[in-house]
Model the fold of this input.
Amino acid sequence: AHILKLLTPGIFLLALTGCDNSTSAENQQLTQALVKRSLDNMVPVAGGEFLMGDFGPLIGEKLPFSSNQDDKYLHKVRLSDFMIGKYKVTHKDYNEYIKITHGKKLTYVFGGKLLADDVPVSIPWQMAKDYCLWLGKMSGKR
Done:
């Protein structure tokens, strides 16, 4: 098995295991079901503007709320209308994506116990981005 992620050594393990010889017709059915389920669970969010950054200097003692350097400067952000999932992506859904795209299965272990399919998946940002881009490509949606 290839280890993909280890958070707090010995606590959380995400591993790729085994190979799957799924047919392309089977993968196509899994893809269509996953895309439909994902799109059915999305809700629209109206775009708009908001201020992003550290509000601390604007109130009270004028001290920063954050010591992080990447959120220091308050700035205006404008978002277009978008859709977002009502629910977090589960192990089941993410595992189906990995099976479709890599022919493997992910195993999730926390404290020595396998995590249930309906538990939200915890993955690095790049893996989440890859999943979202794939879902967009498969659905024809941005």
Q: What stands out?
A: The first helix runs from residue 8 to 11. The two ends are 34 Å apart (CA to CA). The chain has a mean pLDDT of 80.
